[in-house]
Amino acid sequence: MKKYSAPILMLAIFETVAVTLWLTKDNIFYLFNFSYIGFSIALGMFLYIRKNDHARRIVQLLVGLYMLIYLGLICGENMQIEGFWYYLFTGTFEAATIHYAVAKIFGPLIFGRGWCGYACWTAMVLDFLPYKVPDKTSVRSPEKSLERSTEKTPAQLRKKIGWIRYAVFALSLVFVAALFLAHVGNIEKIMFWAFIIGNVLYYAVGIALAFAYKDNRAFCKYICPITVFLKPMSRFAVMRVKCDEEKCVSCGRCKQVCPMDVDVTDNSRSRANGTECILCMECVKNCPKGAL
Question: Which helix (H) or strand (E) holds 176?
Answer without folding.
Answer: helix 164-181
